[in-house]
Design goal:
- The protein has 181 residues and is of the alpha/beta class.
- Helices cover 36% and strands 15% of the residues.
- The protein is built from five helices and seven strands, in the order αβββαβαβαββα.
- The strands form two sheets. Strands 5-4-3-6-7 form a five-stranded mixed β-sheet, covered by helices on one side. A two-stranded antiparallel sheet has the order 1-2.
- α2 links the parallel β3 and β4.
- Pfam families: GSHPx.
C-alpha cells in the first residue's frame, strides 16, 4: 500500500512539474532566465506571455534617472490591464553604480520602483544580454540610458522610443493603450 501511494505521489509530482514547465515556456526571445536586481531569484520572461512589455535600459546617475517616477506611474496605471514594465540597469554609458546594492537603493528606495528590475547587464554590442541583443537586431541598440521598447503581446511588433520620450507623454501613453487593446 505504501509503495502504491509513493508511486501515485511521484506521478502527481511529475505531472505538476511538466504542466508548470509547459506553461512557463514560450518560443520567442523572452524564453530566458534572468536574475532580479539584488536577489538570487530569477525570472523566466515567458511568464509574461501574451502581455505587452515595456523594456527599458536604466542607469542610476543619468539626467533621465527621474523617469523612474513616471515609469512607476505607468506601471501602476496599466499593470492590471496587462502591461509589464521591465527595467535593465546598465553601465554601458558609464552612469550606473558599481555596487548592485547602490543600484537597488536608487530604484527601490529613492524612486519606489515596484516593477521588475534585473541585475546590471550590457545592453549594447556583442555582450548585450539576450533581450537587448534581440531588440537591437530588430530595431536599434539603445543610444543612451532610458531607451524604451514597447513589445506587442504577440511579440511581432517592437516600437522603440528614445531617452527624451517621457513615459507619460501622449506618444508613449497612446502606444501603450494601443498595445493593450
Amino acid at each position: 500500500m505504501l509503495n502504491k501511494l509513493l508511486q501515485l505521489s511521484l506521478l502527481a509530482s511529475s505531472l505538476l512539474m511538466s504542466t508548470y514547465t509547459l506553461s512557463s515556456t514560450c518560443d520567442d526571445f523572452t524564453n530566458v532566465e534572468l536574475r532580479k536586481l539584488r536577489s538570487k531569484e530569477t525570472l523566466n520572461l515567458c511568464q509574461f506571455k501574451d502581455k505587452p512589455l515595456l523594456i527599458v535600459n536604466t542607469a542610476s546617475n543619468c539626467g533621465f534617472t527621474g523617469q523612474f517616477e513616471d515609469l512607476e506611474k505607468l506601471h501602476k496605471k496599466y499593470k492590471d490591464q496587462g502591461l509589464v514594465v521591465l527595467g535593465f540597469p546598465s553601465d554601458d554609458f558609464f552612469q550606473e553604480e558599481d555596487d548592485e546594492q547602490d543600484t537597488a537603493k536608487v530604484c527601490f528606495v529613492n524612486y519606489g520602483v515596484t516593477f521588475n528590475m534585473f541585475a546590471t547587464s550590457d545592453v549594447r554590442g556583442d555582450s548585450a544580454n539576450p533581450i537587448f541583443k534581440h531588440l537591437g537586431n530588430q530595431t536599434s541598440s539603445p543610444k543612451w540610458n532610458f531607451y524604451k521598447y514597447l513589445v506587442s503581446a504577440d511579440r511581432k511588433s517592437i516600437t522603440h522610443f528614445n531617452s527624451r520620450t517621457k513615459p507619460l507623454s501622449d506618444e508613449m501613453v497612446s502606444a501603450v493603450e494601443k498595445a493593450l487593446q
